[in-house]
Write a sequence for this structure.
């Protein structure tokens, strides 16, 4: 059976990012339909589709939209504007799908955002794109300009009396700005520090106004849902996670890349589709949903990549990025590299996360260099239990996910490092000094 | 030194897009960095003045975000991803190679001010790792051979006095 493709159908065609191409393939028809059926019916359709947020948490999108207040007013009784924000920060290691959508299919994102704006009553939208995506931001901006010229954006869109403006906003290199409340602070021109919740963005979001934040892919599949109906989209996935998804496969596979597949696809199938482990090597571990997801071992990969099944397996579907590691990889070193990243990216607001990620990073360096003790392994568990769930945002949980799974599932590797006083897999392990220098010297 | 007219005009054009002036801090910093290659204390002061903000509101933003260079960088800023996806595909070997070729460690700039080498975190292109960002451009699926070719090309371009290496898609008229 040919798998249904929603976002990647035309990805290999020349000029597939242009408005002309998009229009020739039925583009912006869903928007017209959206104006015909109205807000409530759009939200109803999205609810029926079982679309769940593609940014990581997998929150049902229809429900999120229905949380937006209908006619919000400020203290003086004046109506408040509502905003729509697209999360295009894409900082999660192992995730690279939003970049593809923005460079090859930007109009599906724009159309999805206008439909969402109609659904929640937003007057303005911002696409928060990570700063390093210079080219993608430019492609997006010119797509927005084209759409505005044709009347899909701006004042009185397609004679519907709805106004909606869309702007691109570039971040500046901070992973934490992918967390939605940090993103909102960054959008306001502040340090990207997450906010305490509640209040949730639907009440107090960007610039203090009710705001709906969704991932790029979440918005980009909305036109399909309106065109083909919610139930059709739902039927492509599992019972509770509708649709196909862009799965990113990276690491040591034959053909790394982005594969649009049903949410029913198992992790094993995904790895096989990506050509299997490179060089016929044996699989050692997979991080299934972006770097923050707990690792799975080679025997644990016969589960569908949907949100619920992954949760049941003790990990998460997250952002849909599978990082594949073969038998050649030293798990201690791999985790150490992730920890260097987390230590560098912790915003520093909460002491548990700031100190915890720092201690863990140092401890892993020590263990990797063969200077760890058995007590360290206990200490790791203790530090993690003091981090997860104790902080303003879920970053601390993201740190403990891979760390705890590594220590628990690959305990013998850690013990070998301690006992043999070196990395058993490498001829020459990195010295502490070299690694310490590495840790503190990430940017100019 | 005040902000250039070009930056001021651009920021004025962006003003109506946001309900607050503070939201222009990051766009302003991006523009300054594009013009001068870094963000100096002086330019932070200029931005604060132009946007009617306390100096600290600009400074605290600069220190938070890694993309803003607090020190001058070379004409070409090599940023090699060292995160897990690229590391699994051998980015550490490329880093060694680059350090040897440029005769600097990462985090340093060559004495002639031509190159800066940095090790950065995931660039969001792990499927085509190792990834090297040369100023604005991504170069993907690298190996030592391709890297050498690329560095040779860059060397020639610097020699020829080109100014927008790795910035070919920049258009001064539009934001971003
Ligand atoms: C530490 C952290 C990093 C995150 N990074 C991203 C990101 O890069 N891109 C993204 O879309 N969502 C990211 N999220 C999830 C967002 O907070 C939020 O859940 C998402 O944007 C909501 O959109 P969705 O409902 O469409 O998934 C991150 C969350 C956390 C806690
Ligand atoms: S790990 Fe290098 S781009 Fe993601």
């Amino acid at each position: 059976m040919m798998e249904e493709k929603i976002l990647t159908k035309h990805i290999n065609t020349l000029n597939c990012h242009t408005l002309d191409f998009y229009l020739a393939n039925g583009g912006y028809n869903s928007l017209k339909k959206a104006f015909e059926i109205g807000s409530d019916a759009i939200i109803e359709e999205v609810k029926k589709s079982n679309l769940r947020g593609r940014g990581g948490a997998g929150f049902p999108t229809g429900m999120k939209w229905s949380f937006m207040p209908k006619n919000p007013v400020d203290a003086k009784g004046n109506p408040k504007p509502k905003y729509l924000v697209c999360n295009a920060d894409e900082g999660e290691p192992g995730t690279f799908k939003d970049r593809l959508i923005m460079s090859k299919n930007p109009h599906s994102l724009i159309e999805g955002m206008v439909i969402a704006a109609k659904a929640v009553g937003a007057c303005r939208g911002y696409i928060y794109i990570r700063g390093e995506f210079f080219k993608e931001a430019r492609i997006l901006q010119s797509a927005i300009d084209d759409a505005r010229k044709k009347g899909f954006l701006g004042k009185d869109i397609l004679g519907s009396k709805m106004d909606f403006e869309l702007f691109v906003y570039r971040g500046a290199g901070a992973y934490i700005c992918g967390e939605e409340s940090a993103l909102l602070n960054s959008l306001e021109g502040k340090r990207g520090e997450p906010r305490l919740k509640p209040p949730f963005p639907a009440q107090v979001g960007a610039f203090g106004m009710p705001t709906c934040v969704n991932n790029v892919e979440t918005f980009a599949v909305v036109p399909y849902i309106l065109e083909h109906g919610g139930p059709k989209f739902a039927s492509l996935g599992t019972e509770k996670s509708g649709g196909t998804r862009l799965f990113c496969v990276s690491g040591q596979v034959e053909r790394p890349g982005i594969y649009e597949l049903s949410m029913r696809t198992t992790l094993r199938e995904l790895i096989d589709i990506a050509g299997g482990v490179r060089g016929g090597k044996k699989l050692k571990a997979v991080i299934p949903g972006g770097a923050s997801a707990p690792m799975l071992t080679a025997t644990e990969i016969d589960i569908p990549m949907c949100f619920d099944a992954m949760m049941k397996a003790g990990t998460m579907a997250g952002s849909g990025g599978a990082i594949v590691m073969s038998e050649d990889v030293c798990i201690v070193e791999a985790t150490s590299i992730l920890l260097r990243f987390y230590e560098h990216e912790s915003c520093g607001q909460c002491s548990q996360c700031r100190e915890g990620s720092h201690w863990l990073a140092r401890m892993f360096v020590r263990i990797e260099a063969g200077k760890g003790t058995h007590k360290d392994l206990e200490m790791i568990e203790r530090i993690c239990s003091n981090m997860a769930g104790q902080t303003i945002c879920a970053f601390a949980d993201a740190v403990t996910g891979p760390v705890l799974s590594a220590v628990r599932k690959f305990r013998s590797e850690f013990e070998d490092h301690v006992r043999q006083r070196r990395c058993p897999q490498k001829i020459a392990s990195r010295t502490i000094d070299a690694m310490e220098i590495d840790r503190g010297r990430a940017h100019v | 030194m005040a902000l250039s007219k070009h930056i001021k005009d651009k920021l004025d054009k962006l003003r109506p897009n946001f309900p607050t002036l503070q939201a222009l801090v990051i766009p302003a910093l991006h523009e300054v960095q594009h013009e001068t290659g870094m963000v100096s204390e002086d330019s932070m002061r200029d931005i604060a003045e132009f946007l009617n903000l306390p100096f600290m509101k600009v400074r605290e933003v600069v220190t938070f975000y890694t993309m803003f260079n607090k020190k001058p960088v070379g004409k070409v800023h090599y940023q090699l991803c060292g995160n897990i996806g690229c590391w699994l595909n051998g980015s550490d070997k490329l880093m060694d190679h680059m350090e040897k070729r440029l005769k600097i460690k990462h985090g340093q700039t060559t004495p002639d001010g031509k190159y800066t080498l940095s090790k950065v975190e995931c660039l969001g292109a792990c499927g085509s790792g190792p990834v090297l960002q040369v100023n604005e451009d991504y170069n993907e699926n690298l190996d030592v051979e391709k890297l050498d070719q690329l560095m040779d090309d860059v060397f020639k371009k610097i020699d020829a006095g080109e100014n927008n290496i790795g910035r070919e898609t920049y258009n001064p008229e539009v934001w971003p």
User: Anything to note?
Assistant: Residues A 93; B 81, 83-86, 122-126, 129, 131 surround FE2/S2 (inorganic) cluster (ligand 2) (CB under 6 Å). Chain B touches chain A through 58 residues (CB under 8 Å). Chain B is about 40% helix and 10% strand.
